[in-house]
Q: What sequence folds into this?
């Protein structure tokens, strides 16, 4: 396991520019589909709500992401800054993926993020809905 850096810029309090940079960094990391890389953005004791699952800590987050990207194949994500203040950022996102049977899905969601002073995320709450799509309906390639 790789240790998280001492600081994970951009750091709170966020400006519009730094909040957009934080969102873009998250999008880039998630599109890597590398659970280790993504997990390093969270505190060791980070709390997550993802749909109906509740996770606690970087190790659970890493395991969850590994399982996610085993199921959600050819995953492609776009995130958009919705709002920010102090040490919090709100994001809306869409991602597309297909399951093992070849069924494509578009997943729409909203996330609320809360950060420590060092720029690591201590809380992530995500609400997500999935819509079946055809390969011809894909927008994210």
A:
């Amino acid at each position: 396991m790789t240790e998280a850096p001492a600081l994970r810029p951009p750091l709170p309090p966020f400006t519009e520019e730094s909040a957009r940079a934080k969102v873009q960094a998250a999008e880039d990391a998630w599109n890597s589909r590398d659970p280790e890389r993504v997990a390093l953005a969270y505190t060791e004791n980070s709390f997550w709500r993802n749909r109906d699952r509740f996770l606690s800590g970087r190790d659970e987050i890493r395991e969850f992401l590994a399982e996610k990207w085993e199921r959600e194949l050819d995953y492609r994500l776009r995130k958009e800054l919705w709002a920010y203040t102090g040490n919090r950022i709100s994001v809306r996102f869409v991602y597309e993926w297909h399951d093992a049977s070849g069924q494509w899905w578009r997943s729409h969601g909203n996330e609320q993020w809360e950060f420590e002073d060092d720029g690591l995320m201590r809380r992530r709450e995500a609400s997500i809905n999935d819509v079946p799509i055809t390969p011809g309906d894909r927008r994210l390639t």
About this structure: The radius of gyration is 15 Å. The domain at 16-137 is CATH 3.10.450.50 (Nuclear Transport Factor 2; Chain: A,). The chain has one domain: 16-137.
